[in-house]
């Protein structure tokens, strides 16, 4: 393990961090992250169950949107890239992007803008996504009996970037573990198949 790095921020606070093996700092390990949810132009948030049910019954919210919302509900905070990776067998990457644009516009989800205080020139990462008012109301109405934990949109504002950072990192670990398990199963199957040849 490499020695910790220390940086002094503009406010005089010392920040300790560790670099990856390739001497880079993962944005999700960065203790100096700043940012918050951003609102789109022409924001039209739905704020009551009746208007949400109207959108569902009219087909405006389709099965793909519902799958994405359920994934965000289960993940609490997840990046757009992670969503695309998790649902790639069912929804194309471009369809995920289009769905998220619609869901952000109508207040189903919030897109966060995040940047590093230590490395402000670092390239942008995939935007973190959390449920907003309409998405939380919809998922709570449909799935509340099936879960013990959810976060209301205003709770994300209290937790801030650090809270989003924790859940995004945990989801990445889950994803990489799942991929590792799939590869392990394939290796076992290949190994068994070779025995029979």
Q: How is the largest sheet built, in terms of strand order?
A: 3-5-6-4
Beta strand count: 6
CATH topology: Arc Repressor Mutant, subunit A
What series of H and E elements makes up the topology?
EEEHHEHHEEHH
Number of domains: 1
Description:
The chain is an alpha+beta fold and 197 residues long. The chain has one domain: Winged helix-like DNA-binding domain superfamily/Winged helix DNA-binding domain (Arc Repressor Mutant, subunit A). The chain is built from six helices and six strands. A four-stranded antiparallel β-sheet has the order 3-5-6-4, with helices on both faces. The chain has a two-stranded antiparallel ribbon with strand order 1-2. Strand 1 and strand 2 (14-17) form a beta hairpin. Helix 3 (80-87) crosses helix 4. The longest helix has 44 residues, at 153-196.
């Amino acid at each position: 393990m490499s020695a910790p790095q220390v940086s002094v921020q503009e406010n005089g606070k010392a920040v300790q961090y560790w670099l990856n093996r390739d001497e880079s700092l993962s944005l999700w390990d960065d203790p100096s992250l700043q940012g918050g949810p951003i609102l789109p132009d022409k924001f039209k948030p739905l704020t009551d169950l009746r208007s949400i049910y109207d959108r569902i019954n009219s087909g405006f919210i389709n099965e793909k949107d519902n799958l994405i919302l359920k994934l965000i509900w289960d993940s609490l905070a997840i990046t757009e890239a992670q969503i695309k990776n998790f649902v790639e067998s069912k929804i194309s990457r471009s369809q995920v992007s289009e769905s998220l644009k619609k869901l952000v516009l109508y207040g189903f989800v919030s897109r966060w803008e995040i940047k590093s205080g230590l490395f402000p020139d670092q390239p942008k990462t995939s935007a973190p996504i959390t449920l907003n008012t309409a998405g939380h109301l919809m998922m709570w109405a449909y799935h509340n009996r099936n879960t013990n934990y959810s976060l209301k949109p205003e709770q994300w504002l209290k937790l801030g970037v650090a809270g989003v950072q924790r859940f995004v990192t945990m989801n990445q670990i889950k994803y990489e573990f799942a991929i590792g398990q799939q590869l392990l199963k394939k290796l076992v199957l290949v190994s068994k198949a070779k025995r029979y040849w």
